Amino acid sequence: MTFKEAADAGHIRALTDLAWLREEAGDYAEAERLYRQAADAGESGALTDLARLREWAGDPESGERFRRFGLDAEGEIEAPWE
Fold first, then answer.
1. In the chain, what percentage of residues exceed pLDDT 90?
2. What is the pTM of this model?
């Protein structure tokens, strides 16, 4: 069974493994989509992976804001707390 087949079958860890492979291949958009899907399914480590991905993909400010404030209900980075 490939990572894609396992992810399609609902194996959450396979989503993060597949995301990492896409990240290594430079397909950051697909990696982010897969990390988000894994996070939505309850894989909390995918949130750390998502922040790191944004930093490595050339958006360190977004990665830092993500680490500090998390995501809102729509999946966007939360605004700073006041």
1. 24
2. 0.80
